[in-house]
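User: Some background: our group keeps a shared notebook of sequences we're curious about, and every so often someone picks one and asks for a predicted structure to add to the entry. Today it's my turn. The entry only has the sequence so far, pasted here. Could you supply the structure so I can complete it?
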Amino acid sequence: MAAPEEDPDPPRLSELLERGWRLAEEAEAGAEGPAELQRKVQAALALLEQAQRGVEALQLFSGNEELEEVASLDLRFLLVPALLGSLVLKQSPSRARLEQLGRARALFLRFLRQCKAYGLLGPRQRLPLHEEEGEEEEEEAEQEGEGGEQRRPPSSSSSGQAALLDMAAHRREKIDRYKAKKDLEAQLEALRPAVEEGRAEEEALRHFYLLQIQKWVAVALEEVEGIDRERALLERRGAMMQGPSPEPPSHRQRPPVMKPFILTRDAAQAKVFGAGYPSLATMTVDDWYEQHRRHGLLPDQGHKQRPSEEDSQQQEEEKKEEEEGEEEEEEEEALRKARQWDDWKDSHPRGYGNRKNMG
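Assistant: Of course. Here's the predicted structure to add to the notebook entry:
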């Protein structure tokens, strides 16, 4: 009886990372159709998730070791959470989009925290503010202790200028990130052939993976910012859809409908004669005027009063002064041009520049 065939050896951790990384780069290029793209995304996710479980089982990274203690070939496994976060964002959007964004954000932050623990974040690269609230409070306490007094909050007059400075600093930071990204990509392309062909030395190999980590740190920070913006929009849209329908804008309030009436000269006449028929109410001129004044229906209410004679006379005087000032300016300009013309004729005698009649 033939012996049963043994299962092939499971792929090594490095093979899982290389295959998943290659599929992730192909998905990033996006040369295929949507169906093929999603197939590669799912395959890369499965490979890299298996690689992540292997990294955790082997405990390749520890918070007690320095960066110099990590082997050069092990540095590439720091990229697994960042690659997973990028692939999660490339999945087809679904109704659980908020869950996808939350998972991708958690993976990017895990990668960034590991890089921070090894000192791989740049001087201007920091985690999101709400991820470092404790550290910021400690730094502020230290600064207050050194300065001897607490910092005063900015005044309202300088808030606008501070906002403009923040916008300019954010724009400068984006430009610096773009330039640094292009520089990193150029260095990686120069080292990639030797690394892929296996002829790179230890120092070049370590430099290559450190450059990859720097590149993905910048990518992760940008992705976290984009995720936060998208989550805020989705949450706001969900609240609008679940909340009560907005009330229509209130139209201009119409004046109250007044009952028909007949004018009489005074109250006595109204009492004696009445309207002539009991279905209509009677009203004096004073009552009519008072009622219209209360409801703002008089012609002189809500309109600007005509300017007085003094105001019109003052406006005419100001207009006249402006016209006289313009005439004086025109006269001064004409006088200045005439003087310049006289000066030019003094320095350029008649026939100056005419070389045809020179004897």
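Suggested note for the entry: The chain has ten helices and two strands. Residues 202-242 form the longest helix (41 residues).
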